[in-house]
Amino acid sequence: MRKLRVGLTGGIASGKSVVARFFEEFGAVVVDYDVLARRVVEPGTPGLEVLVQVFGKQILRRNGTLDREEFAELVFNDEQTRDQLNAIIHPLIHAAAIGADDAAPDGAIVMHIIPLLVETGFVAEFDKIVVVDVPIETQIERLMGRNGYNRMQAKQRIAAQAIRETRLAVADYVIDNSGTIAATLEQAQQVWSQLAASRASS
Question: What is the domain partition of the chain in residue ranges?
Fold first, then answer.
């Protein structure tokens, strides 16, 4: 039985990590691109070296690690800088993800958790797409509560991603995560059953 490659995405603060944990508990092999994004810029990596060459040593903390908070402010306030960052980081993350996917056993459902799936143009690489969806106002409220952003900062983070309708347009399955955890879990279970059936019939 061949692997089923699934892309899971959603806007910032939509709850992708929560849904990913459910799928992992069901038996999915999870490839988390946020984890990979941190890994490819750890001290001593070519990724961090290139970032320092392009953006300068001011992006580093005293211990030599990337100052993510300061760098995030720089990136989200400057589209050109964001594009530069993406051009450097995305190929590294993609290569790491391919390695993780290749290591998954035959017959596995491999769930790639990709915040910028639509933006990076990787939709066609997957057999199925799952979108975790919440209203924009819910995203704003969660970002303000979780990250301490003001309303303008929250809106900037959301505006830096694809619009909600664009994500929904590519979805094979949509999980509404604006309600209770129990409701989200029930939807995830239903999607998992359909993914397992799709794998078995392929």
Answer: 4-201
Which positions ≥6 away from 156 have C-beta within 8 Å?
Answer: 76, 77
Burial 139-164 (b: 16+ CB within 10 A, else e): bbebbeeeeebeeebbeebbeebbeb
CA–CA dist 19, 14 (Å, integer):
10
Based on the number of CB atoms within 10 Å of its own CB, is 19 exposed (0-12), middle (13-18) or buried (19 or more)? buried
- When pLDDT is cut at 50, 70 and 90, the band that residue 202 belongs to is low
- CA gap 113, 34 in Å, rounded: 8
DSSP state of 86: H
Query: What gap in Å lies between CA 96 and CA 39, rounded to an integer?
Result: 9
Mean pLDDT computed over every residue of the chain: 93
What integer pLDDT is reported at residue 44 of this predicted model? Answer: 94
Closest C-alpha among 130, 122, 120 to residue 172: 130
Tokens encoding 163: 């619009």
Record: fold of 4-201: Rossmann fold (3.40.50)
- Determine phi and psi for 109, rounding to 5 degrees: -95, 110
Three-state DSSP class for residue 9: strand
Instruction: Decide which of 113 and 162 is more confident.
Output: 113
CA separation for the pair 108, 88 (Å, rounded): 30
Average pLDDT over residues 166-180: 97
